[in-house]
Amino acid sequence: VHAPATVTVTGAAGQIGYALLFRIASGQLLGPDTPVKLRLLEIPQAVKAAEGTAMELDDCAFPLLSGIDITDDAGRAFDGVNVALLVGARPRSKGMERGDLLEANGGIFGPQGAAINAGAADDVRVLVVGNPANTNALIAQAHAPDVPADRFTAMTRLDHNRALSQLAAKTGASVADISKLTIWGNHSATQYPDLFHAEIAGTKVTETLDISPGGKDQAWLADEFIPTVAKRGAAIIEARGASSAASAANAAIDHVHDWVHGTPQGEWTSAAIVSDGSYGVPEGLVSSFPVVARNGRWEVVQGLDVNEFSRARIDASVRELVEERDAVKDLGLI
Ligand code: NAI
After folding, report:
1. What contacts 240, CB < 8 A, 6 or more positions away?
2. Which phi and psi angles does 55 have, rounded to 5°?
3. Smallest Cα–Cα separation from 88: which of 125, 119, 147, 47?
């Protein structure tokens, strides 16, 4: 059994928080050998609700849960943190412009990045879930100059899992047999779920589905698969009357678990990480790539052939990330 890890969850009283905390405390985030100390960060108005969730966590009597602290102070929340899950964010309200949204979130993720810089453990790993996730991660990272940039990530794992599920439904395959699918770019409607390298039980999807230009399945790819994955969040809100929460929490668990424990041999997943310039994505942007986790670090899967269809879509999503970065720069947030 390892020493307890400190896991901080922001927005802990929100709906993703409610779906996430019990799974962390049960050991699904860091495995059965690592006890967890939970830190819940909330805004003052929501501290009481977080306390209620903490009462329920107590009542589960999780053997691995070795303590819960609740605070509205980022400095306290991130002191000694090993895994920071930044879930709380300012949602877009009606009529809010992108600049206003970025500014409001800059006011959250800048100070949180600074608090991580000041107090986090040396091995800290940060996953930003709160939207706009990629740019919020960029803002936090920019405020943490003493933390290696590769410790800041944003979540596209939910998009990845949605794409797995859609491809399984189309082909009749089991999700467990699908590998090498990629989400590129921004966690937004411009994201590009790429099937051109995907395999089902070791056979390339392109041998089963003719998704090449002019192929009989190209229309399905362009007009069904890609938009269904990209707009799944809106479809969930439409059906459920609330945004995806349990599936988002599940993806956060998957992301951190893989980061810490490694991705299975011969497979990859998707995560938004600080670009090193791979695949023409400008260095420093937080963009989603095909990644493997080795020795506790994400590495971009190199050497993939990117066809014209994919290139145009990756470029469009990356362009949006550049615009968001330029906007937060103009606002003085980074
Ligand atoms: P929610 O509104 O139920 O909960 C958000 C919580 O964050 C609230 O309790 C609020 O009090 C708290 N909060 C706000 N500002 C805070 C701050 N400065 N410090 C600490 N806590 C703060 O929202 P929900 O459904 O839990 O979603 C959270 C975020 O996750 C949203 O931004 C949502 O858009 C995003 N999301 C991202 C996904 C992804 O794939 N990357 C998927 C689904 C949601």
Report:
1. none
2. -60, -40
3. 47
187 is annotated as an active-site residue:
yes
Per the CB < 8 A criterion, the answer to whether 192 and 313 are in contact is yes
Q: Which of these three, 136, 154, 172, is where a domain ends?
A: 154
CA–CA separation, 133 vs 97, rounded Å?
17
Interacting residues of 231 by C-beta distance below 8 A, sequence separation 6+? 189
The rounded mean pLDDT for the chain is 97
For range 116-125, the mean pLDDT: 98
Q: Which two tokens stand for residue 155?
A: 């979540």
10-28 average pLDDT score: 98
Kindly name the residue from 143, 187, 197, 255 that is annotated as catalytic.
Answer: 187
ipTM, two decimals = 0.99
The length of the chain is 334
Closest CA to 40 of 6, 10, 1: 10
Are residues 60 and 171 located together in one domain of the fold? no
CATH code where residue 70 lies: 3.40.50.720
Position 94 scores a pLDDT of 86
Cα–Cα distance for residue pair 301/292, rounded to 1 Å = 7
Based on the fold, state whether residues 96 and 173 are members of the same structural domain: no
Domain hosting residue 264, numbered range? 157-323
**Does residue 257 sit within a domain?**
yes
The C-alpha angle 185, 137, 53, rounded to 5 degrees, equals 115
Query: What secondary structure does DSSP assign to 45-59, as a single string?
Result: GGHHHHHHHHHHHHH
> What is the SS3 assignment for 86?
strand
Asked if pLDDT for residue 92 goes beyond 90, the answer is: no
178 shares its domain with 201 = yes
User: Could you tell me the two tokens for 104?
Assistant: 């409001």
Q: Is 333 inside any structural domain?
A: no
For residue 286, which phi and psi values (nearest 5 degrees)? -95, 105
Around ligand 1, the residues with Cβ closer than 6 Å are: 10-11, 13-17, 41-43, 46, 87-89, 91, 108, 129-131, 133, 155, 158, 187, 243-245, 248
pLDDT confidence band for 174 (50 / 70 / 90): very high
Q: Is the pLDDT of residue 134 over 90?
A: yes
Tokens for 190? 């411009």
Please give the distance, rounded to the nearest whole angstrom, from the Cα atom of residue 219 to the centre of ligand 1: 35
